[in-house]
Design brief:
Layout: E1 7-12, H1 17-31, E2 35-42, H2 55-73, E3 77-83, H3 92-105, E4 109-113, H4 124-140, H5 148-152, E5 162-166, E6 173-176, H6 181-189, H7 192-195, H8 200-216, E7 223-230
Parallel strand pairs: 1-2, 1-4, 2-3, 4-5
Antiparallel strand pairs: 5-7, 6-7
Helix pairs in contact: 1-2, 1-6, 2-6, 3-4, 6-8
């Protein structure tokens, strides 16, 4: 189990990843009073097979879709870093961006992709995002001598209590989203550019079935599964 926190931060590689991976938990926690914040790492500018689409136009579309989906779930703020889709790298700049977000929002819980998933189809941006988020949480956001320029700006070090990695090979933590499964799907529907051409049934049934399978492992109707890492605070 994970105690419902006062604040949570979701670090998502692309628009729509957060809704697919943890939208039910986000919606459920917001209803219980948690302040949830998003960091959107890439601009999503490559996610289309439309020959008439341009990266610039797609980035604008997907940014608005992410804002709409986050609003549907009750997310307080979306910070868009704007890195090109498919080009996330483990750099000091990216790490600093995430440390800045952790120190600014001061979450007890951070969500991000599991960087150690072995499946070949796991998107590279997900692996990089998960790794850089993990490093940003521990030790960079915690230790004051990392990025001293942030402390000079008033962003004090912060210790995150829990990281919930989504998409692991094997989950060890399941959170009940039975009451927010429909809300999760409503949020996914905001990403129209990613589900265009699909029927209403095809666009959402896979997600419902996936969460039902997770729920069966934990005795819930619907659930989201994570790998949990806890830190001493």
């Amino acid at each position: 189990m994970v105690e419902v926190p006062e604040r949570a931060l979701v670090v998502t590689p692309h628009p729509d990843d957060a809704e697919i991976a943890c939208g039910g938990t986000v919606g459920n926690w917001v209803r219980q009073g948690t302040q949830v914040y998003y960091v959107l790492c890439s601009d999503g500018s490559k996610g289309s097979d439309d020959p008439k689409m341009t990266p610039q136009r797609l980035a604008q579309i997907r940014h608005q879709e992410q804002l709409d989906a986050a609003a549907k779930l009750g997310v307080k703020e979306v910070v868009a870093l704007g890195y090109p889709d498919g080009e996330l790298e483990d750099t000091r700049e990216f790490r600093k961006d995430l440390v800045q977000a952790v120190r600014r929002f001061r979450p007890q819980v951070v969500f991000c992709p599991d960087p150690y998933r072995r499946s070949f189809y796991f998107h590279r941006d997900h692996r990089i995002t998960g790794q850089v988020t993990q490093d940003a949480v521990f030790p960079y956001a915690r230790d004051r001598l990392h990025f001293p320029e942030l402390e000079a700006e008033g962003l004090e070090p912060h210790k995150v209590a829990t990281v919930l990695f989504w998409g692991p090979e094997e989950s060890d933590t399941y959170l009940d989203i039975t009451d927010t499964m429909d809300l999760k799907i409503e949020a996914l529907r905001c990403h129209k550019s990613q589900i265009s051409g699909l029927s209403e049934e095809d666009a959402t049934n896979w997600l419902r079935n996936w969460c039902r399978e997770a729920g069966e492992k934990a005795g819930y109707e619907y659930a989201e599964g994570y790998r949990k890492v806890q830190f001493r605070t």
